[in-house]
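Pilot study result, target chain (52 residues):
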Amino acid sequence: MTEEFYHELLEAQQKAVLARIKASLEDAHAGRVIRHDTVESLMQRLDSEPAE
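Predicted structure:
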């Protein structure tokens, strides 16, 4: 792997991270986020969802 290709991979990864953060913020602002008061309630929610 060349150094140039390595830097291209790093840049692509950074862009992907920023895109995921932006999408998460948009979900939060649109009210598409479920907040849980406790870890237990979060775990119950996760256990009740079907596996993908």
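One observation from the pilot: The mean pLDDT is 95. A full batch analysis is planned for the follow-on phase.
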